[in-house]
Amino acid sequence: MQDTIRVIAGRCTVRHEADEHTETEGSVVVLVKPDNTVLVHDAEGYRPAGWLTRADSVQLSMSEESFDLRATTGDERLLVSGTDPAVAEFPVTTAGPHVGTCPSCGESMVRSAGEVTCLGCKTSYALPRDATVTDSTCEHCGLPTISVTRGTDLEVCLDRECEPIDAAVESAFDGAWACPTCGTDLDIARNRTLGAQCPDCETHYPIPNGTVDGTCACGLPWFETAHGGRCLDPECSTGTIE
Fold it and tell me: Is 81 left (phi over 0), alpha (psi -120 to 50) or beta?
């Protein structure tokens, strides 16, 4: 279903009840967003004259002559009542930078709040925090590809079901390193986090968001990350590169 934003304009009394109570009166515009955020705008400044972000509940009753809106979160309430309201509803979507074209419906795809969303069919794809959306498209499904660093620079499909990051890391590093405890080749596996895991002693080392750049004195790979160099083992007592 299309998300909509409701706009109510009129002469209103706005009462905010929390630790302190305030009450104002004037001609305002009230916006009720799909996530139950309520914003009251008057003629001054860029800041709303009243608001309640993501209220637990929003109740609206109205007639041709008047309306009453009550937004509540815990002990906090925003009450707006007015006369002769003008009311309209408008479709709204996520907004963000254009990053590609949806292969399913041909509409624009935008990046916003940790995901990429199609403005047409509303399909969303989770985006890793460190990922960059490239100008290329996946040869299998036509979605944009993303660039991430997991031991090496990888370019994979935006859709993890089409081309999982885990599979790309496994292809690059499965069996490439030996367990410092028992010498067994480490498997690339997900155990809450993606990491290198010993199939015998079950030690699990989460793979940092960085590039392999040599070998630690303990024998495990050394990573260069945005926060400096480190061993694959975050608790390594050696902590020096060979």
Answer: beta
Average pLDDT over residues 39-45: 92
Q: Read off the pTM.
A: 0.72
Q: ∠ at Cα 15 (10, 17), nearest 5°?
A: 155
- Which residues face 60 on adjacent strands? 69
**In degrees, to the nearest 5, what angle opens at C-alpha 195 toward C-alphas 203 and 165?**
160
Q: Which residue has the tokens 């004037």?
A: 26
Q: What whole-number distance in Å separates Cα of residue 58 and Cα of residue 187?
A: 51
Of 16, 45, 12, 18, give the one whose Cα is nearest residue 30. Answer: 12
The residue-averaged pLDDT of 87-94 equals 90
Question: Which residues lie below 8 Å from residue 25, measured CB to CB, with a gap of 6+?
Answer: 11, 12, 13, 14
Assess contact for 143 and 134: CB atoms under 8 A.
Answer: no
The DSSP call for residue 3 is -
Cα(92)–Cα(2) distance, integer angstroms: 8
Q: What is the pLDDT of residues 2-36, one digit of tens each?
A: 589 999 999 999 999 988 899 999 999 999 999 99
- The token pair that represents 85 in the structure block: 């309201």
- pLDDT value of position 23: 93
DSSP string for residues in 166-193: HHHHHHHHTTSSB-TTT-PBPEEEEESE
Residue closest to 26 by CA, chosen among 85, 84, 86, 82 = 82
Pairwise CA distance, residues 69 & 52, whole Å: 12
